[in-house]
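Q: Is it fine to ask for two folds in a single conversation?
A: Yes, each is treated on its own. Send the first.
Q: Here.
A: Result:
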Amino acid sequence: MKNMWLVRAAIAAAVVVVCAFGAGAQTSDAFGIRAQGMGGAFTAVADDATAAWWNPAGLAAGAYFNMIIEGSTRREPATDGAVPAWHTGTRGFSIAYPALALSYYRLRVSEIQAISSTAESAAGREDEGSANVRLRSLVLSQFGATVGQSLGNHLVIASTLKLIRGTVGTDIRPASGTPLDAADDLEGQPEMHPALDVGAMAKLGTVRLGVMVRNARETTFGDGAAGVTLERQLRAGVALSSRSNLATVAADVDLTRSALATGDERRVSAGGEAWGPTRRIGVRAGVSVNTIGDARPSASGGVSVAPRSGMFLDVAGTAGSDAARRGWGFALRVTF
């Protein structure tokens, strides 16, 4: 009973602290190839080095040693030339033990949005009424150190202290002939800020419950209207594993909004993972749906292959309609 009270208290506290806040600038599933293959249903699953991003408390359930090198790219909508639109490019490195993880993540978010030059007339434009687009590029390099603490036999609370170097570049150009990729070339003044993520995970038999507060300490890069704030994000998840731990099903829900170029979103995800008896081959699949406005559903899948014991090649892909997101990612994972 005491352990159950601790679980409920931790989850309730996290909800009270952050549920009133919005979220912005980055999607929750930007990193983690296994997570992307499961449609982003990973908050209560995170048991490898990407727990540093997904839920720091998951480290306690991981292997003695875990190292991951990864990269991915995603865009929404999938149709080239659509406005508004965004795409991301990521790469990361993380190394973890059950009580400590060190991580480096690099994220570039490029955005394009339509504006009217009428709104820019005060800046001296004479082509009033013609279409223009605003380009923005956000580049973040995040260095993190993750530590955790067990509270009894069923609950772990952990945090990732982050140092983030970021730049924001913006520009306004004519809509005609300006692709989204043009945002990749924009540069800004570098800034360095500390930040903090906090996670909790409870394990009750084969059931796991997870809560993640990303950017518990908000940070802002850039100034004025061009500035980008990494606002608090709250995500919760539940996972059910078989007794052999060869199969897992999970579900996640965003409890805050993410402000993207294509509009606010709050996603619900569900997915699963299954391994062969020798753990040399694993497969996963998932779906994700936006619960604000247009649903923009997407489906994901992934495969893991172990060419030798303890070494895995992970790949994942996401696809949907022309209005939904698409992407792919790969990782090299070493564990023992």
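Q: Second one now.
A: Result:
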Amino acid sequence: MRVVLDAMGGDYAPGEVVAGAVLAAREYGIEVVLVGREEAVRAELLKHDTAGLKLPIVNASEVIEMDEHPSQAVRRKKDSSVVVGLKMVTDGQADAFVSAGHSGATMAAATLGNPGRIKGVERPALATIFPSAKGPVFVLDVGANTEVKPEYLVQWGQMGAIYFDKVYGRHNPTVALLSNGEEANKGTAMLQETYQLLKKVAGLNFIGNVEGKDVVKGVADVVVTDGFTGNIFLKTAEGIASYVQTIIKEELTSNIFNKLLAAGLQPAFRKVRSRMDYEEYGGAPLLGINGVVIITHGRSKAKGIKNSIRVARDAAQNGTVEAIRSLFPVKIPLKTPAS
């Protein structure tokens, strides 16, 4: 198993990214290829004990910065860590690609041709795991597509179900549509049309609409929405989680009695933080791409990078791309008899 890692991507690159690669190579026993400016990457590797680990470096002289236009930067910077790393997947030199860098650039590069869309997929979707009362919930799209058609959401429901089955082992996962009410006639005209289409998909365990509050309850395994709504939902949830943790910390350190109480509750607090920590869940897969591409949070540190590599490994090992590809077989036109 060989996973390519964008060593220059993320707020804490290359230091934390390289540290995460070392952790993943040691814990999972896989090869992690570090793509980036060789001198900088090598300097970070020297800070770690890498004896017996497979951590080769592939030089890429350019870096796509966060303020650059995604598609323009991809076309202009052919030797960027994102473009070079994705091309390795396209060329069969690696099984998966992971980046905490410019998500728009990663999506643009992956969609434009390296490795490109699976034939038959209308639009790739960016998905993420969301914690709930009943375990992980797979939400897509969370930012790749702000303007959508019903057909896109139907495909995302199909792809999301396959991914959840393959990576999380939940056979025949439930699929729901995010709306402002449970009834079939709720939501925009586009959502109502999507609802009717999802009902007709053979083999899809569609359970209807869910509201935002139902996601955290774990009512469905896979929740489908457009990228605009999904991104707002995700960022709002992240903000609320951070705010709640801040309030708890302030209250538990406000006086000596609360501090003593907090000391005894530390194990419970650590478990709560772990369940709400995005770094525990790793990165978000870009589904519909003809290869395993994982986009992780730009603020990810070593633990988040390590877990994103684990997600990439699992997706590659479990054949998610092959399974999604089988959903959309290429139709070969029949030859007409010679006249």
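Q: Anything structural to flag on that second result?
A: Two points. The chain has two domains: 1-121+288-328, 127-281. Residues 6 and 99 are 5 Å apart (CA to CA).
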